Amino acid sequence: MTSEPPIRFEADLPRLTLRRRTLPCGLEVVIHPDHAAPQVTTSVTYRVGSSDETPAHTGFAHLFEHLFKSSAERLGGHHYDVLRRAGASEANASTSADRTAYHETLPANQLGLALWIESDRMGYFLPDFEAQRLTTQQSVVRAERRQRYEDVPYGSARFAVACALWPEGHPLRHMTIGLHADI
Question: Of 10, 53, 65, 90, which residue is the catalytic one?
Answer without folding.
Answer: 65
